[in-house]
Design brief:
Blueprint: H1 3-10, E1 45-49, E2 65-70, E3 73-80, E4 84-90, E5 97-103, E6 115-120, E7 123-128, E8 136-140, E9 148-151, E10 162-168, E11 171-177, E12 184-189, E13 197-201, E14 207-213, E15 219-225, E16 230-236, E17 244-250, E18 255-261, E19 266-272, E20 275-281, E21 289-294, E22 299-304, E23 307-313, E24 319-325, E25 332-337, E26 349-357, E27 360-367, E28 376-382, E29 389-393, E30 406-408, E31 414-418, E32 426-430, E33 438-439, E34 452-457, E35 460-466, E36 472-478
Antiparallel strand pairs: 1-36, 2-3, 3-4, 4-5, 6-7, 7-8, 8-9, 10-11, 11-12, 12-13, 14-15, 15-16, 16-17, 18-19, 19-20, 20-21, 22-23, 23-24, 24-25, 26-27, 27-28, 28-29, 30-31, 31-32, 32-33, 34-35, 35-36
Length: 491
């Protein structure tokens, strides 16, 4: 019996119903039924409600948010309406999930907007609005007394524009704009006022197109300035002497897309005039190369094994997957994904997100509509072959404001949000096969819990979900979660 018939007969109970019947695609086996299955109750557990009853949340940001791992301790921000924020920490237990510092409301307008959380060693850096110093850099050691302003970089109530916060060379590395000239500056901080200093003034009118940190700890970033240097790739080890441009990509300013760190190297795409170039760099001129050019407006999906994968739409409203060797060249089509709405108004497919987990590449593929929201969003998985490409779920979020989360569990599986055959979006898991795709928990049976902000710490994955009043709470699940298929009799 197939899933939808089974669900219609028995209903969706505590164990839930999940799975879909995948569309056929070129080169895929026809017998690819996804059977109903779900994890046992209690697989996902609530750690703690962190919102007061009757809480009003700022409409522009979910809360809690910014889940960050600082040497095994979870930190996150709670922003309340209109301008009250709290920094929390958790050891994974209810009793050990506690506020670190309260940033109380002030006046009747403005937002505290605590965010930008990043771990550097044993310290947590973040930024928050303050009525006295504006939005500036703060640091915390996990105590109220040890949570403090680092420095008022732009004196007075004016705020400092901070971007590209990253851990480089054991210190916080970040970009800011010179308040006098608007030039781009590279700074670093060790968490003290004296140790928060400018590293280098970069190209005067440059814009930061993209930035990643390699596994070596080296920051690689791309600056663009049509007057001074065009598009160039820089590297920084956190020192002035170790910060410099090492190669030029283009005399103009093509669009830089999807720069991704892949451990010892990074891949990125340059798009201009309907063409897309795929590049690879290890932070040296000799190790920087254009891998291939596509005569399409292609989307970089990621790296799987020895290949880089891209997608681009066809003229008949389908989505083509292709790959290129990391050694350069070797361009080849993998497959073309089916679109049951092809030919209908606005039904062009596009990739919302892509993640590699285990030995599979996963894509959330949206089918457009005449309006702002997609008409359907499916999860696809591929091992890089046509036969190994399959549609795993059709119930991902169709909101025009947010997409379903895709998260690499670190245990060879993908965690994602999907409605499946149920009433709303819940956490699911897949190993890339029909039999290994299942709903983890039915947290909010009336409308879905909208899980998001997944973060692995040790053997647990923490996330935010809405299980009912007072609203979003902190939840967790085993990092190696798998859900066994129903028995043959149940199917």
């Amino acid at each position: 019996m197939r899933v939808k018939a089974w669900c219609a007969l028995f209903g969706v109970g505590l164990m839930g119903c999940g799975g879909v019947e995948p569309e056929l695609l070129e080169g895929a086996p026809e017998d690819a039924t996804v059977h109903a299955q779900a994890c046992a109750p209690g697989t996902a557990t609530k750690v703690k409600d962190v919102l007061p009853p009757g809480t009003d949340l700022p409409p522009w940001r979910p809360s809690p948010s910014g889940l960050t791992n600082v040497q095994g301790t979870l930190y996150f921000a709670v922003n309340l309406f209109p301008n009250h924020s709290l920094l929390w920490k958790s050891d994974g237990t209810t009793a050990g999930t506690v506020p670190v510092k309260d940033f109380p409301a002030y006046g009747i307008s403005g937002y505290r907007d605590l965010g930008g959380l990043i771990a550097v060693g044993h310290q947590l850096f973040f930024s928050v609005n303050d009525p006295t110093v504006g939005r500036e850099l703060w640091v915390s050691d996990g105590t109220d007394a040890g949570t403090r302003l680092v420095a008022d970089l732009t004196p007075g109530t004016a705020s400092t524009s901070l971007s590209g916060l990253a851990s480089v060379g054991g210190t916080l590395s970040f970009f800011r704009r010179d308040p006098a000239t608007n030039g781009l500056l590279l700074w670093k901080s060790d968490g003290t006022a004296a140790g928060t200093v400018q590293v280098l003034a970069l190209e005067p009118q440059a814009s930061l197109a993209s930035s990643v940190v390699l596994s070596s700890g080296l920051r690689v970033f791309i600056l663009q300035d049509a007057v001074f240097g065009g598009t160039r790739v820089w590297r920084s080890d956190g020192t002035a002497a170790g910060t410099y441009a090492f190669t030029s990509l283009d005399a103009g300013e093509p669009q830089v897309r999807d720069m991704r760190s892949q451990g010892a190297f990074a891949v990125f795409a340059l798009a201009e005039g309907g063409n897309t170039e795929l590049w690879k760099t290890d932070g040296t001129a000799a190790g920087t190369a254009r891998l291939e050019t596509f005569g399409h407006d292609a989307r970089l999906l990621g790296v799987l094994g020895s290949h880089v994968y891209v997608s681009y739409p066809t003229t008949d409203d389908r989505l083509k997957l292709a790959r290129v060797s990391l050694a350069g060249g070797g361009k080849a089509t993998v497959t073309t994904l089916a679109n049951p709405f092809a030919g209908q108004e606005g039904a062009q497919p596009y990739v919302q997100d892509a993640k590699t987990a285990g030995n599979k590449l996963y894509l959330s593929v949206a089918i457009g509509s005449p309006g702002p929201a997609p008409r359907r969003v499916d999860l696809w998985g591929t091992d890089g072959t046509a036969a190994g490409t399959a549609r795993l779920s059709e119930g991902l979020s169709t909101s025009d404001e947010r997409a379903s989360t895709l998260f690499d569990s670190g245990s060879g599986t993908l965690i994602f949000g999907s409605a499946g055959d149920s009433a709303g979006e819940e956490p699911w898991v897949t190993n890339g096969t029909a039999a290994g795709t299942a709903r983890i928990a039915d947290i909010q049976s009336m409308g879905g819990s909208n899980p998001n902000s997944f973060l692995r710490i040790g053997t647990r994955i923490f996330f935010v979900a809405n299980g009912g009043p007072p609203g979003n709470a902190l939840w967790s699940m085993p990092a190696n979660v798998t859900c066994p298929a129903l028995s043959a009799e149940a199917r």
